[in-house]
Amino acid sequence: MSLMNLDVFLHRLQYDPDKVKPLDWETDWDDAPLPYKLYRGLPMFPLSREVPATLEGRDTTGVPILRDIGHFLYYAFGLTQLTQSVMEREPSKESVGVLQMCRRFVPSGGGLYPSELYLYLKLGELPAGIYHYDAAHHRLALLREGNFDDYLARSLGNRRDTNGCFAAAFVSTVYWKNFYKYNNFAYRLQGLDAGILIGQLLEIAKRFGFSSSVHFQFLDQAVNHLLGLSEQEESVYAVIPLSTDPVIRWMESGNEDEDTVSASELCRELSTVRHDHYVRSRRIADYPLLLRMSEASRLDSARSFREFVRDEQAIPDQALALPLPPVERLSYDLATVCRNRFSPETEFILKPIALSRLAALLREATVSFSYRNDLDGPHERPEPRVCLYGCFYGVDDIPDGAYRYDDAAHALQPVSLGDHRQRMQEGMSLPNINLFQVPLSFHVAGKRSFFQSQLGKRGYRIQQMEAGMLVHRLLLAASALGMGGRPLLGFDANSSDALYRTASRDETGLIFIPVGPYRQRLRLAGSLSR
Predict the structure, then answer these.
(1) Reported pTM
(2) Which of 176, 186, 134, 187 is nearest to 31 (CA)?
(3) Distance between CA atoms of 50 and 58, rounded to whole angstroms?
(4) Three-class SS of residue 218?
(5) Which of 103, 207, 325, 512 is the most exposed place for a label (fewest CB within 10 A)?
(6) Is 19 exposed, middle or buried (0-12, 13-18, 19+ CB in 10 A)?
């Protein structure tokens, strides 16, 4: 398994996922890692648990204080709720089980949360430096003290004015946190999980008046060295500078040799730090394929950074496109929508969906997706690299069938009319959802090549992150409209691609999200804020 060609690995992750893990793989539930990282023996700075119940009407002027950062982190990635629900009783057992878990406002594959969140902070109330957000205790752990503006700027290829930023967020992946359950399939989940967290960070930043920019390209070794991470355990996937200025200034990076530094050279400017942290697992298996993918995706020089160039291709005839009714952006309290977000399974209820409701869902998900990043450079509103397909049943005024959403024209492009619920149900690897109770079934899609010609092996994880970001926007919009959505990877990509005829656009379905009305699940829930 460890000698598998990486291109074969990526192909199997997408189209034949059963072949990426050993047949005899068994999850050791009793030796599961914690879903959050716990550092030990470091200076700790507690954050306020008196979190506001709403994010509306905030004063978003001026540099934030530590109290604001605590609220920002709570809504971005904090432990927000403790829930207890009764599991369905198996026929062979006399008693029913009780499932207890800590909930966050963002979903995660299997509830395992492989991502971790770090911050470079420059606030007057605590030492400038690198911090880890300890979600379990809602506090900051100081990893490295100092001003690292210049170091960070060069790690990002001198393309953003980090001097004007009060903070930078780092989203990492801890390999073992979901490898223990999913084996090599974890690599696909880790990019999606990171993308969903990035999407939440960007949405919360807007409510706090912070401008942001996502960097998918950076000197990996230098950034991991700054945070004191062991690259055999964990690696940063994205860096997000934060500023109170309206826009973080784009810098024109020079091409002279003296302006370019290698990751190893940059690392030598800082001493190595190693910190003790608690995992809980007593036995940690090897994951050589994940490390090989990380190594193949690594960037060691800013000369390897690329701005994205899109392939020119013919667009199919849009004469039959169904224009959707014009709709305004949704207006909602993000805090309430996050609290109400729900991932139904057996709770979906089939009800007719008004066309205006579907139009609002699609419009909000795609318009809110626009964000600044290092792939598009200084360009405004570039064409997105991921898109939405959907199978709709019982939507007023449009025929049942499979469609592609054209966000530029705000229209549905019919692909295959008819009721396709049976076909999609047969393509699911687990019967945990009855699709005959689901009116809206979405697939987020992207290029089949995973952008490897432009971005190398890093293109795959970037595509997964952008897919996760769009999934996040779709879930928020669904929640704002009183519906639930459940992201799933247990679907047959070959079957869904054939249904949507994605080959004509060189696209493939990356993740499946049933969306619709639902009934409440019987459970006890308690807030973890005061």
Answers:
(1) 0.95
(2) 176
(3) 15
(4) coil
(5) 325
(6) middle
